[in-house]
Amino acid sequence: MTAAAAATETPGAERAQAWAVRATALRKKFPSRGGGVEALRGVDLSIGAGEIYGFLGPNGAGKTTTLRILTTLLPADSGEAVVAGVDVRRHPAEVRHRIGYVGQLGGADREATGRENLLLQGRLYGMSRTDTERRAGELIELLELSAFSQRIVRSYSGGQRRRLEVALGIMHRPEVLFLDEPTLGLDPQNRANLWAQLRGLRDAGTTILLTTHYLDEADQLSDRLAIIDHGRVVAEGTPLELKQRYPAEVIIIPKPGTAELGSLATDLECDPQVSRVHIDDGALRIQVPDPTAGLAAVIDRLRAGGVGVLRVSLQEPSLDDVFLHETGRSLRDAGDPAAAEAA
Amino acid sequence: MTLLLQTALLSRRRLLETLRQPIWVFMGLSVPLLYLALFAPLLTSLAGGPGFPTGGVLDVFVPGILALMAFGAGMGAGWIVIGELDTGVIERLRVTPASRLALVLGTVVRDVITFAVPAVIVLCVALPFGFHSHWGGLGLLVVLMTLLTAACSAGSAALGITLQQIGSLAAVVTGLQLPLTLLSGVLLPLSLGPGWLQGIGHANPMYYAVEAARQLAAGTVATGTVALGFGVTAAAALLAIWWATRAYRRAMA
Question: N or C: which end of chain A has fewer CB within 10 A?
Answer without folding.
Answer: N
